[in-house]
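Colleagues,

For the teaching module next term, I've prepared a clean inverse folding example: a structure given as tokens, and then the sequence designed for it. I'd like students to try predicting residues themselves before seeing the answer, so please don't circulate the second half yet.
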């Protein structure tokens, strides 16, 4: 295996008299950077799982893991978020990226992993490109063999262990739990493996054999245990299988709308982020547990953090074709060429997946784009700051006439209305032709016209 190492430099920092290394001791940052710009590596896998050629979206991209705004980079990737929702003028991420958009830098941010609850999304600033996560056409499963006859197919689980542990009774046994066991107790218990309930349907790395079951499957295991005096089980090796019908919105992917801004569809777009194989820090625990020293070069992670760099890579790909395009033009290109997911599968519809799933090739030729100026974002900020005591304008620009989110030249359109009441609303928009000169565009409306009357004026451009 060969690597091309081209690190220009690194710097450590001292916080509270303690020096913090510049190395990634967790693995998350390495994984994200690898998805975005990793070089091609053959025969990559996690202990043989997901064996394939691994490559980041744009290996030729240059990454700066630090002050990207000051140095004038094109795209900022943020695979993190606030724990709790914050009003925009008090949100440190929204404030920083407001400076970025003022300097012509596109910011891509993960939506968060608090789904499927509605209004669980915390990244909702209009000037930030917010990314939800989908699964892919491959998933990883485990098989649990009960006795000699039955096999249950289930997902591995992402977190850990509880109070069903009595070390003197479970030494070298597979433990059946009604809850997740406590991590430190897992290490002390010397159990051979664990079976416990989970509502999630995706796999995560664990330091010992673990199977997480639905409640129905867990009850089947309990019945089997009672049916025999010698309940033998086997947790078999994980294996990849096809995932027909993918992509689907990941259950954990945060949903909109946000309580502070109803007239804005968030997330903006969806991208792959479930069971993603990528490079991993050689000093990071692959399961995220400190006592797990099973260090690896590649690992499999899930989260909107993994979806975010996919969108960064596509944005950089589009930028390479159109270096003169603004952040809003690139954002518009990705959103208007995305392929729509089925709203019938998700009660939240667009508030689960935004404009749809990214399509890198189509995004290079969108035809029309929506250009959103910094002045329009500033109007939104001013509208909020005037009604929020203590907030300030993070720019030297003066506050123009205030505006609502639905009135800016954004790439999606939504408005909050009262249930059962009639309404009429207009969305003023301006589009720019980036396709062939003298092209003609004709508006086409999809949906159920018996329930809603929609018109586009003019209907031909």
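(Answer key — instructors only)
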């Amino acid at each position: 295996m060969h690597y091309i190492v081209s690190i220009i430099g690194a710097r450590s920092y001292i916080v509270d008299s303690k020096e913090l290394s510049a190395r990634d001791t967790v693995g998350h940052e390495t994984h994200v950077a690898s998805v975005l710009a990793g070089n091609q590596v053959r025969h990559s896998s996690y202990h043989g799982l997901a064996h394939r050629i691994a490559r980041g979206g744009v290996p030729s991209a240059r990454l700066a893991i630090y002050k990207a705004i000051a140095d004038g980079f094109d795209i900022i990737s943020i695979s993190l978020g606030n724990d709790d929702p914050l009003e925009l003028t008090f949100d440190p991420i929204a404030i920083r990226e407001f400076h970025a958009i003022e300097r012509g830098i596109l910011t891509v941010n993960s939506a968060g992993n608090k789904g499927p609850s509605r209004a669980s999304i915390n990244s909702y600033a209009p000037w930030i490109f917010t990314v939800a996560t989908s699964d892919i056409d491959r998933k990883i499963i485990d098989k649990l063999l009960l006795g000699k006859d039955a096999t249950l197919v289930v997902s591995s689980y992402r977190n850990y262990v509880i109070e069903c542990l009595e070390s003197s009774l479970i030494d070298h046994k597979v433990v059946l739990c009604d809850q997740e066991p406590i991590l430190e107790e897992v290490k002390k218990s010397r159990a051979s493996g664990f079976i416990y309930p989970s509502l999630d349907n995706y796999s995560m790395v664990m330091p010992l054999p673990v199977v997480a079951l639905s409640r129905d499957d867990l009850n089947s295991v309990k019945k089997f245990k009672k049916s025999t005096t010698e309940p033998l089980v086997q947790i078999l090796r994980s294996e990849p299988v096809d995932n027909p019908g993918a992509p689907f919105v990941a259950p954990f992917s945060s949903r909109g709308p946000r309580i502070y801004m109803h007239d804005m569809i968030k997330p903006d777009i969806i991208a792959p982020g479930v069971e993603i194989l990528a490079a991993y820090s050689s000093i990071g625990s692959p399961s995220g547990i400190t006592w797990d020293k099973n260090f690896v070069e590649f690992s499999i992670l899930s989260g909107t953090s993994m979806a975010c760099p996919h969108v960064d890579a596509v944005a950089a790909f589009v930028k390479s074709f159109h270096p003169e395009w603004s952040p809003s033009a690139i954002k518009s290109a990705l959103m208007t060429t995305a392929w729509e997911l089925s709203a019938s599968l998700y009660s939240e519809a667009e508030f689960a997946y935004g404009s749809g799933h990214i399509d890198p090739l189509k995004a290079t030729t969108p035809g029309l784009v929506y250009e959103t100026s910094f002045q329009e974002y500033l109007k939104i900020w001013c509208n909020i700051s005037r009604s929020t005591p203590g907030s300030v304008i993070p720019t030297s620009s003066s506050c123009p006439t205030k505006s609502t989110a639905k009135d800016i030249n954004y790439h999606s359109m939504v408005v909050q209305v009262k249930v059962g009441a009639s309404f009429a609303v207009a969305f003023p928009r301006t589009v720019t032709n980036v396709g062939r000169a003298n092209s003609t565009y004709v508006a086409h409306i999809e949906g159920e016209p018996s329930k809603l009357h929609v018109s586009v004026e003019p209907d031909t451009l």
